[in-house]
Write a structure and sequence with these properties.
135 residues, alpha+beta, Aminopeptidase
Length: 135
């Protein structure tokens, strides 16, 4: 049975393991535990999915709880994908911030997933990686 809960003290090791096992680790600094630690420290809404205590999924968000919730990481262990765990983590994230708009940038492999669960694609997203890129 999968259990879900808000967690405030997720370990760097557990988070890193689920990132790697989900393939999200391909785009996260999994070889930099200090950065992972800061990501966990500053993510102010972390909801986990566990199977008999083992971390198998996580939704890590930054939110003001009233206007916007940026779901930065949605990672589900590949062995547990296609069982509704990601959808449930998103649902619980939205329930925790009901007045806020939930926003995310999709991983390339998940682009087709989000519309299937009812999310709306927006064309107006922009990304700035480096301050030197500002013209």
């Amino acid at each position: 049975m999968i259990t879900y809960q808000i967690e405030t003290d997720l370990s760097v090791e557990e988070f890193t393991e689920v990132l790697i096992n989900s393939t999200l680790g391909e785009r996260r600094p999994v070889s930099e535990p200090d950065r992972i630690s800061q990501m966990l420290q500053h993510g102010n809404l972390i909801i986990t999915a566990r199977d008999q205590g083992k971390l198998i999924g996580v939704s890590r968000s930054l939110t003001d709880f009233m206007f916007c919730t940026y779901l930065s990481d949605l990672a589900i262990d590949e062995k547990y994908q296609r069982q509704g765990i990601g959808k449930e983590l998103i649902r619980r994230t939205k329930l925790a911030t009901p007045q806020a708009k939930l926003i995310l940038l999709s991983a390339p492999k998940a682009v087709e997933y989000y519309p299937k669960i009812g999310m709306t694609k927006w064309e107006q997203c922009y990304v700035l990686d480096h301050v030197d890129d500002i013209k």
